[in-house]
Design goal:
about 40% helix; two-stranded antiparallel ribbon
């Protein structure tokens, strides 16, 4: 997990909660990686097989 320290307007110190940002980064990464993988496989004449996660795990 990321830790981002910040200074508030009243000079107190705090920490930003970055978990939601990290979840979005993972989703965006998958949106990029999947089409890239498909393009590379097409160019090399390879095939991919869908992978289904175990129940309770992230796809």
């Amino acid at each position: 997990m990321l830790s981002v320290k910040v200074r508030c307007q009243d000079d107190r110190r705090g920490t930003l909660h970055t978990h939601p940002s990290l979840e979005c980064a993972v989703a965006l990464s998958e949106l990029y990686n999947q089409p890239l993988l498909e393009e590379i496989c097409r160019a090399l004449d390879l095939a991919t097989v869908p992978r289904y996660p175990t129940a309770g795990q992230r796809p």
